[in-house]
Amino acid sequence: MPWRLLGAWCAGLLLAGVSVVVGCRAADTDAVTPVPQVLAFLPWLLVPAGAAAALALLARWWPGVVWGVVALALLGWFGRPYGDGAEPGGKTVAELRVLTSNVEFGWATGALIPVVRREKPDIVFVEECEYTCQAAVRRELGGEYPYRQAVPGESSVGSVILSRFRLTPAEGVDGSMGMPGAVADVDGRSVRLQLAHPKPPLPDQVDLWKRELGRLHDFAARHADGPLVLAGDFNASQDHTAFRRVLDTGLRDAARLSGAGREPSWPSRTTPVFGAQIDHVLVSKEFSASGARFLRLDDTDHRALVVNLTLHQP
Q1: Which residues, other chains included, contact 163 with Cβ-Cβ below 8 Å and sequence gap of 6+?
Q2: Cα–Cα distance, 130 to 127 (Å, whole number)
Q3: Which residues, 6 or more positions from 13, have their beta carbon under 8 angstroms from its beta carbon?
Q4: How far apart are CA 198 and CA 223, in angstroms?
Q5: Under a CB-based contact definition with an 8 Å cutoff, are residues 150 and 182 in contact?
Q6: Is 27 helix (H, G, I), strand (E, B) or coil?
Q7: Which of 59, 118, 163, 301 fits a disulfide with 4 by CB distance 3.0 to 4.6 angstroms?
Q8: Alpha-carbon dihedral 140, 145, 146, 151, rounded to 10 degrees
Q9: What are residue 228's DSSP bridge partners?
Q10: Which H or E element spans position 232?
Q11: Distance between CA 57 and CA 267 in Å, rounded?
């Protein structure tokens, strides 16, 4: 019947599109546009895959039913949290709270300041903190956070790390946008801090996005021998190969450790119903994590992430 043929065609088209993205995920590649952009929303491909399987069933197109079931099974498999979730077993050395926030060209600076005062993090990573933003956080938060390490810049280039702990400047990671680094003295223990903000995978800069995530991977690999907190807007989720390579250095995602490994952080206007988790706090094996929360701020398209970290003896 014509409606069955139409249903089979629609199911086939949906499954073909889903299968390209799922195939790239299975092949461990971010490929080229539009795959990286769609991979950020991989869990939501369950919707077209499920619709396609239902259409195939109604059309009695049995190969399509099998195809749909396989696609759904693979999406379910890849939806599991990625990376090491083990907790360190050593004695507790220190406890600290970390907050990261992309304030979108500095527009959300006014919203961030009261959130920082309310949440009282010990270390704050602020992305897209341009000149006006940096002046505001110095003026409003300088008393509580006397130590800072910044990359000055306009628009999305500027970034800053604020800290209650004494900071020693350290070489950051090269990128199109500022990624400052520092070493914090946390109750007598040196903890390497690095802000992450690679370019997003826009259609004309996917190669640049991959290179800058690759630099973050290389940085994490070089500093795998001590306590490390790598936090910020990664413009990547666990479904991107380039981000998984960063985790493969031994870092763990603090949101995942806290049971919020799939809660989206962007775009804030549709979260938590729909979105991608591209804002992360990654920690080395010396840390455990708890109480991760994503916070909505006015005037930015990202939700802030705050998490409690416990530093353990190796």
Answers
A1: 122, 123, 124, 145, 147, 148, 149, 182, 184, 193
A2: 9
A3: none
A4: 19
A5: no
A6: coil
A7: 59
A8: -80
A9: 192
A10: strand 228-233
A11: 34
The Cα–Cα gap between 237 and 254 comes to: 13
Q: pLDDT digits over 68-84, tens only?
A: 999 999 999 999 999 88
Is the pTM higher than 0.70? The answer reads: yes
222-253 tens-digit pLDDT: 999 999 999 999 999 999 999 999 999 999 99
- Strands 304-312 and 287-295, by their bridges, are antiparallel
266 close to 279: Cβ distance less than 8 angstroms: yes
- Residue 50's identity, in one-letter code, is G
Distances (CA, A) of 234 to 101, 273, 311, 313, 314: 11, 21, 23, 28, 27
Element (H, E) at 96: strand 92-102
Asked if residues 10 and 53 have their Cβ atoms less than 8 Å apart, the reply is no
Distance between CA atoms of residues 75 and 78, nearest Å: 5
Distance in angstroms (rounded) separating the CA atoms of residues 256 and 251: 11
Q: What percent of the chain has pLDDT over 70?
A: 100
Residue type at 23 in one-letter notation: G
CA dist 237 and 241 (Å) reads 9
CB 40 within 8 A of CB 276: yes
Residues 11-33: tens digit of each pLDDT: 999 999 999 999 999 999 999 99
Judged by DSSP in three states, 156 sits in coil
Ordered alpha helix ranges (H), 106-234: 109-119, 131-141, 206-222
